[in-house]
Amino acid sequence: MRFLYPLGLLGLIGIPVLIIIYIIKSKYTEQTVPSTYLWNLSERFLKRKRPISKLAGILGLVLQLLAVAAISLAIAHPVIILPGAAHDYCFVLDGSGSMNIDQSGKTRLELGKEEISSVIKKAADGSSYTLVYVGCNTSVVYEQTEDKEQALLQLSQVSPEYAANEVTDAIGVAQEYFDENPSVVIYLVTDKAYDTVENMTLINVSDRRENYAISNIEHVWEEDAATVTVTAEAISYESDATLTVELYLNGETTPSATQTVQASKMQFVPVELSCTAVNFDHMSVRIKETDSLALDNEAIVFDVEKENEYDALLVSDRPLFIKSAIQSTGNAAVTVKTPAEYEEYKAAEKKEGFDLYVFDSYNPAQMPTDGAVWLFNLTSNLTGAGFSVQDDRVDIERDGGGELTLVADGSAASTALTKDVFGQGISIVRYVKYGLYRNFTTLFEYENNPIVFAGTNEYGNREVVFAFDLHDSNLPLLFDNLVLFGNLLEYSFPTIVEEVFYYSGDDAEINVISGCKSIRIDSPTGKISYLDTSSATSTFTLEEVGVYTVTLMVGEMQMQRRIYAALPQAERAPTQTAESISLQGEAGTDKRDGKYDDLIALFIGLAVLFLADWVVYCYDRYQLR
Amino acid sequence: MGRMVINEEFLQQVETLQTLIKNNVAGQYGGNRQSKTYGSSCEFADYRDYVQGDDITKIDWNAYARFDKLYQKLYLDERQMHTRIYIDVSRSMEYGKNDKAEQALRLAAVLAYVSVNEMDKVSVYAIRNDQVEEIIPSMVGKEAFVQSVGKFNEVTFDGDSMISDAILPTKVGYGDGMSVIISDFLTDNDYERAIDHLVSKKRHVLCIQVLSKEELNPQTRGKVHFFDSEDMRRTYRKNIDKEIAQAYKAALNYVTERIENYCTARGADYALVSAEDSVAEIFFGKLVDKGVMK
Prior knowledge:
Chain A is α/β, with parallel strands linked by helices. Chain A has five domains: 2-77 and 599-622, no CATH class; 83-206 and 575-594, von Willebrand factor, type A domain (Rossmann fold, 3-Layer(aba) Sandwich), CATH 3.40.50.410; 212-303, Immunoglobulin-like (Sandwich), CATH 2.60.40; 308-492, Rossmann fold, CATH 3.40.50.880; 501-570, Immunoglobulins (Immunoglobulin-like, Sandwich). Chain A has 13 helices and 41 strands. In chain A, the strands form twelve sheets. Chain A has an eight-stranded mixed β-sheet with strand order 21-20-22-23-31-30-29-26. A five-stranded mixed β-sheet of chain A has the order 8-7-4-9-12, sandwiched between helices. A five-stranded mixed β-sheet of chain A has the order 32-38-37-34-35, with no helix packed on it. In chain A, a hairpin with a 5-residue loop joins β30 (449-456) and β31. In chain A, α1 (14-25) runs antiparallel to α4 (56-76), α5 runs antiparallel to α6 (148-156) and α9 crosses α12 (479-492). Chain B folds into two domains: 8-25 and 81-289, von Willebrand factor, type A domain (Rossmann fold), CATH 3.40.50.410; 30-79, no CATH class. Chain B has helices at 8-14, 61-67, 100-117, 141-148, 163-167, 192-200, 213-216, 242-265, 279-289, and strands spanning 30-49, 71-79, 82-88, 121-128, 131-140, 178-183, 204-211, 222-228, 235-240, 269-274. Chains A and B meet through β2, α2 and α13 of A and β8, β9 and α8 of B.
């Protein structure tokens, strides 16, 4: 026997205290009386007492001592060791996507948890429990704990995951326990069937429910024809079925196209859907029929270009060169305003909300704070721009103007910005002389004066400055023009997400653009997480099925992208028979010591009983008058 | 010892009392008590033939006229009663609140006063161990009472009491009045022989058992070790509980009933009084009820 709270035994100090009190109190009070004649005579009239009554004097003490001992033991919470009555248990719980399949109102994962709970509850006290969970990753939830309550609690907190993950890693963990203790009782709880299982007990929670799935979705959007064509494959895993596949465009609630197909069991059926689509942002392809696993009945596809598209505002009296350069090299929707219109627009205090502001030969009153800024031929100082105007017009008195010099300082930024730029023969006839006081990367210079440079402004947003008017240069006529604009747009709007369709369990890659303060990921179930922004790319494991929202803060600018994670195909047909799975080694039969710690109720009961007896005794003794 | 058990107020209360003697007394001196012999009281008793030399004033001339023969009228004699009061002065009488000693002295004094008020002769004795000590050897009349009453306050209570051993060897008189024994009678010593002896001497015997309230209704509970005040070798060591308390009451009843029955069987009177009982309660209540007083 051992005690959970040995300090409770301090209560036994009460026993000698009670004995001392009893000895002190049990002293006979000496008293002189007129005569003892009557008292001695009373002996003749005393009824013969029962033998137990003779113990009455000491019975009180005995009861009190028993009560104190019982209470102390109850507090100390004794645990009786039962040799060889308990086991070491190791549970391998499959938490992959297929365990979300609903069976009679409960998911397979819930059924598996119930099976494990049942084993734990029936196990002898003193057994140890280890839970290995196979979710997106294999993790040991708890290891060799003897605390039943804690084991059950943590088991109940295991939440379903959606990735495809083989139990191989988990079996490896179980093998380690098995090597350490061949007598460990190992349960594999999954919905997958195995030909043979050795040295462990398989609990298969699958009852092979109906499941349909849509997969292999591809689409083509022809903007000019305003049509979108989608191809996909539908499948029924358990039986032949008639499936209705619907196409929803841009979040609409009515299908834009529908096709009904006859799907044979375990046979992919091609589906082709086509509809008119003037705009295309994203689409949802879903099977109308309901089944036990809804997660794989729908797939959402976002348009990558649309996701990476940006809005640009061009303020210029002569926007042709710049607009055509941006539209031809970038994924931008360009809004053009004249300076007068822009001032009206600003005066109306309309929300800015553009990703890129281009000011051509126009001096804005203040720097926009919510987007990248390109400044062409700025002739007056602009607060927050990071440079000052030293001379607003420098004419180059030379035929054909002055040729710009390409600056390649070897830095990463410079290399990226001047990538594929030839840099020869670019000349200008006049320029504005600037003095830089922020850290800019100069791309071109003339007579050591910065002519084209890029960096970030005071608000942390990306800024590109041309110290001349394109009309005063031959740049628009050169091939370098498109290359340079392409580099500058890539610099201002790097692609954040290269892929927008993943499978749950995949790692999504997020490009960390320069100046990015934070990257926030909102999962389909609302879980929020932030990614590291210290490296060029950041990865994030997609553990759920559905639409993830990626939000980047670049300076004061918020950039949002969406990606979709689908249920892995391997998890859609989990009931297929798999290969054998086994633990290597000879199973043992040793058991560990069990415990019985329900004595506390017994002790408390005894204590109450003794105390009650004590009270009755005292009443009888002292209240007899 | 300076007990003030007797005072004027107290005596005034008992002045109206009178003792009742069951048998006519045969005292040596004249008094107020009717004697078994013929005498010179006013109470007619019988006739006898006149003989020469008789007092002619007691000839019944009416009878002479009717029977033509001289008859002498006889009257009852009135003798002085000798009241002997024995007080148990053992140490057991002195314990307890409103102790028994005070009550015993008070009773003795009142009885003595009642007797002297009736012109009886009163002797008061103390029974100490196996001896009878004279407290007041003899007093007749109130004046003598007043002069002697102070001696009650000088009585000391000590030692044991062996009533029979003490009384039997002493002169107790014969048919001349009342003998009163005031004691707690809580003893194995043979007091019955004393009663028998007194009764055999034609004495009117009155036994007054004085017990304290604690003795009549003990409240002590728990573990006690009692020592007898008269002999510390006599002890009682018990855990007094309900059963023992009940046994004690049974023992008390046994003792009191035994004395009462013994007295009744021998024509003696018996009264049980508490040390806390008032004199009025005892004399106007218990003793009157028992016919000892009127």
